[in-house]
Specification:
The complex is a heterodimer. Chain A is an alpha/beta fold. Chain A has a single domain, classed as Aldolase class I (TIM Barrel, Alpha-Beta Barrel), CATH 3.20.20. Chain A is built from 10 helices and 13 strands. In chain A, α3 (106-117) packs parallel to α5, α5 (145-158) runs parallel beside α6 and α8 (249-257) crosses α10 (275-289). The longest helix of chain A is centred in the N-terminal third of the chain and has 15 residues, at 78-92. Chain A is globular. In chain A, 59% of the residues are buried. Chain B starts with a strand and ends in an 8-residue tail after the last strand. Chain B folds into 2 domains: 2-89, Translation factors (Elongation Factor Tu (Ef-tu), domain 3), CATH 2.40.30.10; 95-239, 3-Layer(aba) Sandwich (Rossmann fold). The chains are: A alpha/beta, B mainly beta.
Chain lengths: 300, 244
Amino acid sequence: MDRLKTSLCGIELDNPVIPASGTFGFGYEFAQWYDINCLGTFSFKGTTKEERFGNPTPRIAECAAGMINSVGLQNPGVERVIAEELPKLKQVFRKNVMANVSGFSVEDYAYTCEKLDREEQVGWLEVNISCPNVHGGGMSFGTDPKAAAEVTAAVKRVTTKPVIMKLSPNVTDITEIAKACEGAGADGVSLINTLQGMRISLRTRKPVLANVMGGVSGPAVFPVALRMVWQVCRAVKIPVVGMGGITTAEDVLEMMMAGACAVEVGAANLTDPCACKTIIDGLPAAMDKYGIRNLEELRI
Amino acid sequence: MKQLILKVWENDRIAESVYRMVLEGPELEEQKPGQFVNIRLDGQFLRRPISVCESEAGMLTIIYKVIGRGTEALSRRRRRDTLDVLTGLGNGYDLSKAGDRPLLLGGGVGVPPLVMLARKLREQGKDVTAVLGFNTKEEVFGETAFRMMDCKAIVTTVDGSYGMKGFVTDALPEDYSYFYTCGPEPMLKAVYRKTLTSGQFSFEERMGCGFGACMGCSCRTITGYKRICREGPVLEKEEILWTD
Protein backbone atom coordinates (compact mmCIF):
# COMPACT_ATOMS: atom_id res chain seq x y z
CA MET A 1 0.00 0.00 0.00
CA ASP A 2 2.70 2.45 -1.08
CA ARG A 3 0.10 5.00 -2.09
CA LEU A 4 -0.64 5.70 1.60
CA LYS A 5 2.99 6.25 2.56
CA THR A 6 4.09 9.59 3.89
CA SER A 7 6.96 10.81 5.99
CA LEU A 8 7.18 12.86 9.11
CA CYS A 9 10.41 14.70 9.93
CA GLY A 10 12.44 12.19 7.95
CA ILE A 11 10.81 9.04 9.31
CA GLU A 12 8.64 7.09 6.90
CA LEU A 13 5.05 6.29 7.91
CA ASP A 14 3.03 3.47 6.32
CA ASN A 15 0.09 5.85 6.34
CA PRO A 16 -0.62 9.33 7.72
CA VAL A 17 -3.03 8.29 10.50
CA ILE A 18 -1.80 8.91 14.06
CA PRO A 19 -4.06 8.58 17.12
CA ALA A 20 -3.70 11.77 19.13
CA SER A 21 -2.27 11.97 22.62
CA GLY A 22 -4.78 11.60 25.44
CA THR A 23 -7.19 9.53 23.36
CA PHE A 24 -5.09 6.41 22.97
CA GLY A 25 -3.43 5.77 26.34
CA PHE A 26 -0.20 3.85 25.78
CA GLY A 27 -1.74 1.80 23.00
CA TYR A 28 -2.46 -1.44 24.79
CA GLU A 29 -6.07 -0.55 25.61
CA PHE A 30 -6.69 -0.38 21.85
CA ALA A 31 -4.70 -3.49 21.03
CA GLN A 32 -7.65 -5.36 22.53
CA TRP A 33 -9.88 -3.94 19.78
CA TYR A 34 -7.56 -4.29 16.73
CA ASP A 35 -3.93 -4.80 15.71
CA ILE A 36 -2.61 -1.28 16.21
CA ASN A 37 0.40 -1.96 13.97
CA CYS A 38 -1.80 -0.79 11.09
CA LEU A 39 -1.33 2.79 12.35
CA GLY A 40 1.21 5.24 10.97
CA THR A 41 2.30 5.70 14.58
CA PHE A 42 0.52 7.01 17.67
CA SER A 43 1.15 9.76 20.17
CA PHE A 44 1.07 8.37 23.67
CA LYS A 45 -0.57 9.87 26.75
CA GLY A 46 0.87 13.26 27.72
CA THR A 47 3.73 12.64 30.13
CA THR A 48 5.03 15.01 32.78
CA LYS A 49 8.05 14.99 35.09
CA GLU A 50 5.99 14.05 38.15
CA GLU A 51 2.92 11.84 38.49
CA ARG A 52 -0.39 13.69 38.05
CA PHE A 53 -3.92 12.69 39.00
CA GLY A 54 -5.41 15.51 36.97
CA ASN A 55 -8.58 17.46 37.61
CA PRO A 56 -11.62 16.50 39.67
CA THR A 57 -14.54 14.76 37.94
CA PRO A 58 -16.78 15.29 36.01
CA ARG A 59 -14.05 15.69 33.42
CA ILE A 60 -16.18 14.97 30.37
CA ALA A 61 -19.10 16.82 28.82
CA GLU A 62 -20.82 16.49 25.48
CA CYS A 63 -21.60 19.17 22.92
CA ALA A 64 -23.10 19.20 19.45
CA ALA A 65 -20.80 17.09 17.26
CA GLY A 66 -18.15 16.84 19.88
CA MET A 67 -17.05 16.71 23.47
CA ILE A 68 -15.28 18.75 26.12
CA ASN A 69 -12.65 17.30 28.42
CA SER A 70 -10.83 18.61 31.43
CA VAL A 71 -8.77 15.53 32.27
CA GLY A 72 -5.74 17.64 33.17
CA LEU A 73 -2.82 15.45 32.07
CA GLN A 74 -3.35 12.45 34.33
CA ASN A 75 -0.23 10.30 33.94
CA PRO A 76 2.11 8.26 36.14
CA GLY A 77 5.14 10.53 35.58
CA VAL A 78 8.05 9.98 33.22
CA GLU A 79 9.95 7.46 35.37
CA ARG A 80 7.00 5.09 35.57
CA VAL A 81 6.05 5.70 31.95
CA ILE A 82 9.51 4.44 31.00
CA ALA A 83 9.59 1.61 33.54
CA GLU A 84 5.99 0.35 33.25
CA GLU A 85 4.13 1.74 30.25
CA LEU A 86 6.70 1.60 27.44
CA PRO A 87 7.49 -2.13 27.97
CA LYS A 88 3.74 -2.87 27.72
CA LEU A 89 3.48 -0.63 24.66
CA LYS A 90 6.35 -2.49 23.00
CA GLN A 91 4.50 -5.77 23.30
CA VAL A 92 1.63 -4.54 21.14
CA PHE A 93 3.31 -2.01 18.81
CA ARG A 94 6.39 -2.60 16.66
CA LYS A 95 6.84 0.83 15.10
CA ASN A 96 8.31 4.11 16.31
CA VAL A 97 6.01 5.84 18.74
CA MET A 98 5.50 9.55 19.31
CA ALA A 99 6.26 10.62 22.87
CA ASN A 100 3.96 13.40 24.05
CA VAL A 101 5.41 15.62 26.76
CA SER A 102 3.97 18.36 28.92
CA GLY A 103 5.44 20.50 31.66
CA PHE A 104 5.08 23.39 34.07
CA SER A 105 8.43 25.03 33.48
CA VAL A 106 11.02 25.09 30.70
CA GLU A 107 13.18 22.81 32.87
CA ASP A 108 10.31 20.31 33.25
CA TYR A 109 9.94 20.01 29.50
CA ALA A 110 13.67 19.56 28.97
CA TYR A 111 13.95 16.98 31.78
CA THR A 112 11.09 14.81 30.51
CA CYS A 113 12.09 15.10 26.85
CA GLU A 114 15.70 14.19 27.60
CA LYS A 115 14.59 11.02 29.37
CA LEU A 116 12.17 9.96 26.63
CA ASP A 117 14.62 10.84 23.86
CA ARG A 118 16.82 7.97 25.10
CA GLU A 119 14.04 5.42 24.66
CA GLU A 120 14.66 3.34 21.57
CA GLN A 121 11.06 3.11 20.43
CA VAL A 122 10.47 6.85 20.63
CA GLY A 123 10.66 8.24 17.11
CA TRP A 124 9.46 11.79 17.70
CA LEU A 125 8.91 14.05 20.69
CA GLU A 126 5.64 15.91 20.55
CA VAL A 127 5.88 18.80 22.98
CA ASN A 128 2.50 19.91 24.23
CA ILE A 129 2.57 23.65 24.85
CA SER A 130 -1.17 23.84 24.51
CA CYS A 131 -3.00 21.92 27.21
CA PRO A 132 -5.94 24.13 28.22
CA ASN A 133 -6.64 22.13 31.37
CA VAL A 134 -3.70 22.83 33.63
CA HIS A 135 -2.84 26.04 35.38
CA GLY A 136 0.56 27.67 35.35
CA GLY A 137 1.79 25.51 32.51
CA GLY A 138 0.73 23.83 29.34
CA MET A 139 -1.10 26.40 27.32
CA SER A 140 0.67 29.38 28.85
CA PHE A 141 3.79 28.33 26.89
CA GLY A 142 1.78 28.01 23.71
CA THR A 143 0.11 31.40 23.75
CA ASP A 144 3.28 33.50 23.81
CA PRO A 145 5.78 33.25 20.91
CA LYS A 146 8.74 33.96 23.20
CA ALA A 147 7.81 31.24 25.72
CA ALA A 148 7.09 28.79 22.89
CA ALA A 149 10.52 29.46 21.41
CA GLU A 150 12.15 29.07 24.80
CA VAL A 151 10.61 25.62 25.37
CA THR A 152 11.51 24.57 21.83
CA ALA A 153 15.14 25.63 22.21
CA ALA A 154 15.47 24.00 25.64
CA VAL A 155 14.09 20.70 24.37
CA LYS A 156 16.22 20.80 21.22
CA ARG A 157 19.38 21.30 23.30
CA VAL A 158 18.91 17.99 25.17
CA THR A 159 17.41 15.75 22.48
CA THR A 160 18.46 14.06 19.27
CA LYS A 161 15.10 13.04 17.82
CA PRO A 162 12.68 15.20 15.82
CA VAL A 163 10.83 17.67 18.02
CA ILE A 164 7.24 18.50 17.07
CA MET A 165 5.63 21.37 18.95
CA LYS A 166 1.91 20.88 19.60
CA LEU A 167 0.15 24.21 19.26
CA SER A 168 -2.88 25.78 20.87
CA PRO A 169 -5.73 27.26 18.83
CA ASN A 170 -6.57 29.55 21.75
CA VAL A 171 -4.45 32.40 20.37
CA THR A 172 -4.96 35.46 18.19
CA ASP A 173 -2.55 34.33 15.48
CA ILE A 174 -1.35 30.73 15.50
CA THR A 175 1.16 31.40 12.72
CA GLU A 176 3.16 33.65 15.07
CA ILE A 177 3.60 30.76 17.52
CA ALA A 178 4.41 28.32 14.72
CA LYS A 179 7.05 30.66 13.30
CA ALA A 180 8.57 31.17 16.76
CA CYS A 181 8.89 27.40 17.20
CA GLU A 182 10.41 27.02 13.74
CA GLY A 183 12.86 29.81 14.48
CA ALA A 184 13.93 28.08 17.71
CA GLY A 185 14.70 24.85 15.87
CA ALA A 186 11.47 22.83 15.96
CA ASP A 187 11.46 19.99 13.41
CA GLY A 188 7.70 20.16 13.01
CA VAL A 189 4.48 21.45 14.50
CA SER A 190 1.19 19.69 15.22
CA LEU A 191 -2.15 21.45 15.55
CA ILE A 192 -4.69 22.04 16.87
CA ASN A 193 -5.02 21.09 20.51
CA THR A 194 -8.54 21.53 21.92
CA LEU A 195 -10.44 24.83 21.89
CA GLN A 196 -11.43 26.17 25.29
CA GLY A 197 -15.11 25.78 26.02
CA MET A 198 -17.68 24.93 28.68
CA ARG A 199 -21.21 23.67 29.30
CA ILE A 200 -23.73 24.54 32.00
CA SER A 201 -26.27 22.00 33.27
CA LEU A 202 -29.81 23.38 33.00
CA ARG A 203 -30.78 21.05 35.82
CA THR A 204 -28.20 22.21 38.38
CA ARG A 205 -27.51 25.66 36.82
CA LYS A 206 -23.83 24.94 37.38
CA PRO A 207 -20.97 24.15 34.98
CA VAL A 208 -20.97 20.48 33.94
CA LEU A 209 -17.20 20.14 34.32
CA ALA A 210 -15.78 20.30 37.83
CA ASN A 211 -12.96 22.35 36.34
CA VAL A 212 -15.60 24.71 34.80
CA MET A 213 -13.77 24.96 31.46
CA GLY A 214 -12.28 22.31 29.27
CA GLY A 215 -11.10 21.62 25.73
CA VAL A 216 -13.56 21.10 22.88
CA SER A 217 -12.78 18.41 20.34
CA GLY A 218 -14.62 16.29 17.80
CA PRO A 219 -16.12 17.06 14.37
CA ALA A 220 -17.39 20.43 15.67
CA VAL A 221 -13.83 21.84 15.54
CA PHE A 222 -12.76 20.41 12.17
CA PRO A 223 -13.29 23.57 10.07
CA VAL A 224 -11.41 25.67 12.62
CA ALA A 225 -8.55 23.17 12.69
CA LEU A 226 -8.42 22.96 8.92
CA ARG A 227 -8.24 26.75 8.63
CA MET A 228 -5.37 26.94 11.12
CA VAL A 229 -3.45 24.11 9.45
CA TRP A 230 -3.87 25.91 6.12
CA GLN A 231 -2.51 29.14 7.62
CA VAL A 232 0.42 27.49 9.40
CA CYS A 233 1.40 25.45 6.32
CA ARG A 234 1.80 28.73 4.46
CA ALA A 235 3.75 30.39 7.28
CA VAL A 236 6.42 27.75 8.02
CA LYS A 237 8.61 25.35 6.04
CA ILE A 238 8.75 22.55 8.64
CA PRO A 239 6.29 19.61 8.47
CA VAL A 240 2.81 20.19 9.88
CA VAL A 241 0.71 17.46 11.50
CA GLY A 242 -2.97 18.37 11.19
CA MET A 243 -5.56 17.41 13.76
CA GLY A 244 -8.91 18.51 15.12
CA GLY A 245 -12.18 16.66 14.59
CA ILE A 246 -11.01 14.14 11.99
CA THR A 247 -13.40 11.18 11.88
CA THR A 248 -13.34 9.94 8.27
CA ALA A 249 -10.90 9.12 5.45
CA GLU A 250 -12.29 12.14 3.59
CA ASP A 251 -11.34 14.38 6.54
CA VAL A 252 -7.78 13.03 6.30
CA LEU A 253 -7.59 13.95 2.61
CA GLU A 254 -9.01 17.40 3.26
CA MET A 255 -6.47 18.02 6.04
CA MET A 256 -3.63 16.88 3.75
CA MET A 257 -4.90 19.14 0.97
CA ALA A 258 -4.52 21.99 3.45
CA GLY A 259 -0.86 21.03 3.65
CA ALA A 260 -0.54 18.57 6.52
CA CYS A 261 1.96 15.76 5.93
CA ALA A 262 0.21 13.53 8.46
CA VAL A 263 -2.85 13.74 10.67
CA GLU A 264 -3.77 12.96 14.23
CA VAL A 265 -7.16 11.56 15.20
CA GLY A 266 -8.38 12.24 18.73
CA ALA A 267 -11.95 12.23 19.97
CA ALA A 268 -13.06 9.72 17.32
CA ASN A 269 -11.07 7.01 19.14
CA LEU A 270 -13.23 7.45 22.21
CA THR A 271 -16.58 6.99 20.48
CA ASP A 272 -15.38 4.20 18.22
CA PRO A 273 -12.39 2.20 19.45
CA CYS A 274 -11.72 1.05 15.87
CA ALA A 275 -12.02 4.57 14.36
CA CYS A 276 -8.39 4.82 13.17
CA LYS A 277 -8.42 1.37 11.60
CA THR A 278 -11.68 2.21 9.81
CA ILE A 279 -10.20 5.49 8.55
CA ILE A 280 -7.03 3.76 7.27
CA ASP A 281 -9.04 0.99 5.60
CA GLY A 282 -11.25 3.62 3.98
CA LEU A 283 -8.42 5.75 2.56
CA PRO A 284 -7.82 3.85 -0.74
CA ALA A 285 -11.49 4.00 -1.75
CA ALA A 286 -11.74 7.68 -0.79
CA MET A 287 -8.59 8.40 -2.82
CA ASP A 288 -10.00 6.53 -5.83
CA LYS A 289 -13.18 8.52 -5.60
CA TYR A 290 -11.30 11.81 -5.85
CA GLY A 291 -8.66 10.65 -8.32
CA ILE A 292 -5.76 10.71 -5.87
CA ARG A 293 -3.06 8.20 -6.89
CA ASN A 294 -0.92 8.62 -3.80
CA LEU A 295 -0.86 10.90 -0.78
CA GLU A 296 2.48 12.42 -1.78
CA GLU A 297 0.77 14.28 -4.61
CA LEU A 298 -1.34 16.20 -2.09
CA ARG A 299 1.70 17.82 -0.49
CA ILE A 300 2.05 21.49 -1.29
CA MET B 1 -14.79 -6.35 25.39
CA LYS B 2 -16.51 -6.57 22.04
CA GLN B 3 -18.04 -4.06 19.65
CA LEU B 4 -21.30 -5.53 18.37
CA ILE B 5 -24.30 -4.47 16.34
CA LEU B 6 -27.25 -5.63 18.43
CA LYS B 7 -30.91 -5.79 17.53
CA VAL B 8 -33.57 -4.29 19.79
CA TRP B 9 -35.97 -7.04 20.83
CA GLU B 10 -38.15 -4.90 23.07
CA ASN B 11 -38.01 -1.45 24.64
CA ASP B 12 -40.87 -0.76 27.03
CA ARG B 13 -41.63 1.79 29.68
CA ILE B 14 -41.84 -0.01 33.04
CA ALA B 15 -42.04 2.90 35.49
CA GLU B 16 -41.97 6.71 35.48
CA SER B 17 -39.25 7.63 32.90
CA VAL B 18 -37.79 4.12 33.26
CA TYR B 19 -37.46 1.75 30.29
CA ARG B 20 -36.43 -1.87 29.88
CA MET B 21 -34.64 -2.74 26.65
CA VAL B 22 -33.79 -6.25 25.53
CA LEU B 23 -30.98 -6.51 22.97
CA GLU B 24 -29.99 -9.58 21.02
CA GLY B 25 -27.10 -10.66 18.83
CA PRO B 26 -25.63 -14.08 18.01
CA GLU B 27 -22.09 -13.02 19.00
CA LEU B 28 -23.18 -11.62 22.34
CA GLU B 29 -21.56 -13.36 25.30
CA GLU B 30 -22.93 -13.54 28.81
CA GLN B 31 -21.92 -10.42 30.75
CA LYS B 32 -20.84 -10.43 34.39
CA PRO B 33 -23.22 -8.92 36.96
CA GLY B 34 -22.13 -5.30 37.51
CA GLN B 35 -20.60 -4.88 34.05
CA PHE B 36 -21.92 -2.25 31.65
CA VAL B 37 -22.38 -1.63 27.96
CA ASN B 38 -21.69 1.61 26.05
CA ILE B 39 -24.25 2.48 23.41
CA ARG B 40 -23.81 4.70 20.36
CA LEU B 41 -26.85 6.78 19.41
CA ASP B 42 -27.46 8.81 16.26
CA GLY B 43 -27.08 12.49 16.96
CA GLN B 44 -25.04 11.99 20.14
CA PHE B 45 -21.25 12.18 19.97
CA LEU B 46 -20.44 10.22 23.12
CA ARG B 47 -21.79 6.78 23.84
CA ARG B 48 -24.09 6.20 26.80
CA PRO B 49 -22.85 3.78 29.45
CA ILE B 50 -25.68 1.65 30.91
CA SER B 51 -25.34 -1.17 33.44
CA VAL B 52 -26.41 -4.66 32.47
CA CYS B 53 -29.57 -5.88 34.24
CA GLU B 54 -29.72 -9.42 32.91
CA SER B 55 -27.63 -11.31 30.42
CA GLU B 56 -27.17 -14.67 28.80
CA ALA B 57 -25.43 -15.75 25.59
CA GLY B 58 -27.12 -13.99 22.69
CA MET B 59 -29.19 -11.60 24.77
CA LEU B 60 -28.95 -8.81 27.33
CA THR B 61 -31.36 -6.57 29.19
CA ILE B 62 -30.79 -3.01 30.33
CA ILE B 63 -33.05 -0.85 32.46
CA TYR B 64 -32.42 2.87 32.13
CA LYS B 65 -33.96 6.15 33.13
CA VAL B 66 -34.55 8.93 30.63
CA ILE B 67 -32.44 11.80 31.96
CA GLY B 68 -31.13 13.72 28.96
CA ARG B 69 -31.02 13.66 25.16
CA GLY B 70 -29.06 10.40 24.96
CA THR B 71 -31.38 8.28 27.06
CA GLU B 72 -34.34 10.04 25.42
CA ALA B 73 -33.04 8.90 22.01
CA LEU B 74 -32.55 5.41 23.43
CA SER B 75 -36.17 5.30 24.60
CA ARG B 76 -37.31 5.94 21.00
CA ARG B 77 -35.56 2.86 19.59
CA ARG B 78 -38.06 0.27 18.40
CA ARG B 79 -38.10 -3.47 17.94
CA ARG B 80 -35.74 -4.57 15.14
CA ASP B 81 -33.75 -1.29 15.25
CA THR B 82 -30.03 -1.93 15.56
CA LEU B 83 -27.56 -0.35 17.98
CA ASP B 84 -23.73 -0.18 17.97
CA VAL B 85 -22.80 -1.41 21.45
CA LEU B 86 -19.49 -1.93 23.26
CA THR B 87 -20.06 -4.92 25.52
CA GLY B 88 -18.26 -6.57 28.43
CA LEU B 89 -17.06 -3.31 29.99
CA GLY B 90 -15.95 -2.86 33.60
CA ASN B 91 -14.98 -5.32 36.31
CA GLY B 92 -18.37 -6.38 37.69
CA TYR B 93 -19.18 -7.64 41.16
CA ASP B 94 -17.01 -10.26 42.84
CA LEU B 95 -19.41 -12.98 43.98
CA SER B 96 -16.84 -14.96 45.92
CA LYS B 97 -17.10 -12.70 48.99
CA ALA B 98 -20.88 -12.90 49.41
CA GLY B 99 -21.03 -15.26 52.37
CA ASP B 100 -24.28 -17.13 53.10
CA ARG B 101 -26.66 -14.19 53.50
CA PRO B 102 -25.70 -11.37 51.12
CA LEU B 103 -27.62 -8.10 51.18
CA LEU B 104 -28.30 -6.17 47.98
CA LEU B 105 -29.02 -2.44 48.23
CA GLY B 106 -30.28 -0.62 45.15
CA GLY B 107 -31.49 2.92 44.61
CA GLY B 108 -33.53 3.89 41.54
CA VAL B 109 -31.73 2.85 38.37
CA GLY B 110 -29.06 1.41 40.66
CA VAL B 111 -31.42 -1.56 41.08
CA PRO B 112 -30.93 -3.15 37.61
CA PRO B 113 -27.36 -4.49 38.03
CA LEU B 114 -28.48 -6.21 41.23
CA VAL B 115 -31.01 -8.37 39.33
CA MET B 116 -28.45 -10.54 37.58
CA LEU B 117 -26.31 -10.51 40.70
CA ALA B 118 -29.24 -11.84 42.72
CA ARG B 119 -29.84 -14.62 40.20
CA LYS B 120 -26.20 -15.69 40.29
CA LEU B 121 -26.15 -15.65 44.08
CA ARG B 122 -29.39 -17.64 44.23
CA GLU B 123 -27.90 -20.20 41.82
CA GLN B 124 -25.15 -20.64 44.41
CA GLY B 125 -27.82 -21.26 47.03
CA LYS B 126 -27.31 -18.01 48.92
CA ASP B 127 -30.00 -16.52 51.12
CA VAL B 128 -30.45 -13.13 49.40
CA THR B 129 -32.18 -10.04 50.78
CA ALA B 130 -32.71 -7.04 48.49
CA VAL B 131 -33.66 -3.55 49.64
CA LEU B 132 -34.85 -1.40 46.75
CA GLY B 133 -35.22 2.35 47.25
CA PHE B 134 -37.21 4.80 45.14
CA ASN B 135 -38.50 8.33 45.52
CA THR B 136 -42.13 7.53 44.96
CA LYS B 137 -44.58 4.78 43.94
CA GLU B 138 -44.57 5.68 40.22
CA GLU B 139 -40.83 4.99 40.03
CA VAL B 140 -40.93 1.55 41.63
CA PHE B 141 -39.79 -1.44 39.54
CA GLY B 142 -38.00 -4.74 39.98
CA GLU B 143 -39.70 -6.01 43.14
CA THR B 144 -41.30 -8.98 41.36
CA ALA B 145 -38.02 -9.99 39.72
CA PHE B 146 -36.40 -10.45 43.14
CA ARG B 147 -39.46 -12.18 44.63
CA MET B 148 -39.57 -14.63 41.71
CA MET B 149 -35.99 -15.62 42.52
CA ASP B 150 -37.06 -16.31 46.12
CA CYS B 151 -35.14 -13.35 47.46
CA LYS B 152 -36.52 -11.39 50.35
CA ALA B 153 -37.40 -8.01 48.78
CA ILE B 154 -38.05 -4.84 50.77
CA VAL B 155 -39.13 -1.69 48.93
CA THR B 156 -38.72 1.78 50.38
CA THR B 157 -40.04 5.08 49.02
CA VAL B 158 -38.92 8.46 50.26
CA ASP B 159 -42.51 9.76 50.33
CA GLY B 160 -43.97 6.56 51.76
CA SER B 161 -46.34 6.07 48.81
CA TYR B 162 -45.24 2.44 48.44
CA GLY B 163 -43.57 -0.04 50.79
CA MET B 164 -41.69 1.32 53.74
CA LYS B 165 -41.34 5.09 54.11
CA GLY B 166 -37.74 6.25 54.11
CA PHE B 167 -34.39 5.47 52.52
CA VAL B 168 -32.76 2.13 51.76
CA THR B 169 -30.57 2.65 54.80
CA ASP B 170 -33.69 2.90 57.02
CA ALA B 171 -34.57 -0.69 56.10
CA LEU B 172 -31.28 -2.46 56.67
CA PRO B 173 -31.80 -5.94 58.16
CA GLU B 174 -29.87 -6.76 61.31
CA ASP B 175 -28.17 -9.82 60.01
CA TYR B 176 -26.30 -10.17 56.71
CA SER B 177 -22.96 -11.64 55.69
CA TYR B 178 -21.85 -9.06 53.09
CA PHE B 179 -23.43 -6.41 50.86
CA TYR B 180 -23.52 -5.24 47.26
CA THR B 181 -24.86 -1.81 46.35
CA CYS B 182 -25.55 0.50 43.44
CA GLY B 183 -27.34 3.83 43.43
CA PRO B 184 -26.91 7.59 43.56
CA GLU B 185 -23.85 8.86 45.42
CA PRO B 186 -25.69 10.25 48.48
CA MET B 187 -27.20 6.79 48.97
CA LEU B 188 -23.83 5.09 48.54
CA LYS B 189 -22.35 7.38 51.18
CA ALA B 190 -25.17 6.55 53.61
CA VAL B 191 -24.71 2.83 52.89
CA TYR B 192 -20.99 3.23 53.55
CA ARG B 193 -21.71 4.77 56.97
CA LYS B 194 -24.52 2.51 58.08
CA THR B 195 -23.44 -0.95 56.97
CA LEU B 196 -21.70 -3.22 59.45
CA THR B 197 -19.93 -5.61 57.11
CA SER B 198 -17.64 -5.27 54.15
CA GLY B 199 -19.20 -4.84 50.73
CA GLN B 200 -18.94 -3.68 47.14
CA PHE B 201 -20.13 -0.39 45.60
CA SER B 202 -20.89 0.25 41.95
CA PHE B 203 -20.15 3.83 40.92
CA GLU B 204 -21.43 6.05 38.15
CA GLU B 205 -19.32 8.69 36.39
CA ARG B 206 -19.42 10.68 33.17
CA MET B 207 -17.27 8.79 30.72
CA GLY B 208 -15.53 9.60 27.49
CA CYS B 209 -14.77 6.18 26.08
CA GLY B 210 -15.89 3.57 28.64
CA PHE B 211 -12.92 1.29 27.97
CA GLY B 212 -9.99 2.90 29.76
CA ALA B 213 -8.47 5.18 27.13
CA CYS B 214 -9.34 8.73 28.05
CA MET B 215 -8.93 9.01 31.83
CA GLY B 216 -12.25 10.86 31.92
CA CYS B 217 -13.69 8.87 34.83
CA SER B 218 -10.69 8.50 37.14
CA CYS B 219 -11.05 8.48 40.89
CA ARG B 220 -8.72 8.28 43.86
CA THR B 221 -8.84 5.17 46.04
CA ILE B 222 -6.87 3.88 49.01
CA THR B 223 -5.03 1.61 46.57
CA GLY B 224 -4.28 4.35 44.02
CA TYR B 225 -5.92 5.93 41.01
CA LYS B 226 -8.61 3.89 39.33
CA ARG B 227 -10.74 4.31 36.23
CA ILE B 228 -14.42 3.78 36.98
CA CYS B 229 -14.84 2.26 33.50
CA ARG B 230 -11.98 -0.19 33.77
CA GLU B 231 -10.88 -0.99 37.34
CA GLY B 232 -14.47 -0.12 38.34
CA PRO B 233 -17.34 0.49 38.28
CA VAL B 234 -17.31 -1.81 41.32
CA LEU B 235 -15.01 -0.84 44.19
CA GLU B 236 -14.59 -2.53 47.55
CA LYS B 237 -15.70 -0.66 50.64
CA GLU B 238 -12.17 -0.70 52.07
CA GLU B 239 -10.62 1.09 49.10
CA ILE B 240 -13.11 3.94 48.70
CA LEU B 241 -11.99 7.53 49.25
CA TRP B 242 -14.93 9.93 49.19
CA THR B 243 -14.05 13.23 47.53
CA ASP B 244 -16.16 15.40 49.82
